[in-house]
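Figure 2 data, in text form.
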Amino acid sequence: MTNLGQPNQQIFADTLLEMGLKDRDILIVTSDSRGSGKLVAFGEQLPEQTVEVGIAEQNLVGISAGLAAAGKKVFAVSPACFLTMRSLEQIKNDVAYSDRPVCVVGISAGLSYGMLGSTHHSLHDYAVLRCINNIDIIAPADNFETREALKAIIEHPRPVYLRFGKKPVRNLHPESTQFEIGKAITIREGKDLTFIAIGEPTSRALAAAEILEKEGVFCRVISMHTLRPFDTDALLSAAKETKGIITVEEHSVHGGLGEACAGILMQRGIHVPLKIVGIPDEYTYNGDQYDIFDHYGISGDGLAESARTLLGERV
């Protein structure tokens, strides 16, 4: 993979430490997750801005909501698979319903735990959080989006769910790119087909576009880094200006990016070939994260083949 950066979790931790050193109101609350969240340095340098609750995710969210109510800028950090299942009620009531601007941070998200299997995969979090009012959902695609999302979240008036994986990611954007919560970024222009991706699989959509360009097929690639608020205009433009849409996500095919796109298009009466690429409704294939991606077609080659099929069906 060309132009490889660092894991987004590392960029999150480094950026948050820089910000915390300048702003004493920034706090982290962790559930025995400082090591996996790359936050050891934050805890060592800013112990008075660090709260450790142990393996108690429900307490983590409740305490974070209380600190936010007292005016602190709180990042509640825990593995996504546990955070959005064990403490879903607290996210719903203590954070979203109570309108506390906590940043709930799901680390090691999606398939990051690889061989640990379905108990440790978070393939449900987009779906359950989309059903809860008053919490925005952001999944950065690369290091740039991670840094810019953090800067934006500090000033954001609403609760946010922020999602990261563990592995190094490809750098997708020049530093001059404009980032705004709720506004998708077009990484590559194209007229034949559009890939709309969220989070770290976005680099694989770009790889597919690069493969297809060699065949004379020119694909638009959109980083839909924010699932809520959703950039409806970017989706509608893609539907009107290209011949089909493939959505790509490290999540169940139910309730995430793909179904969000399908719902918007159907309600607007816009008919365009659409394929949702994610994890199907089955016992998840086991293996390393990248092996699982490849198995389910979340790869440059796999997505390129999905594009050929979709364009062929359209003809």
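Caption note: The chain has a mean pLDDT of 95.
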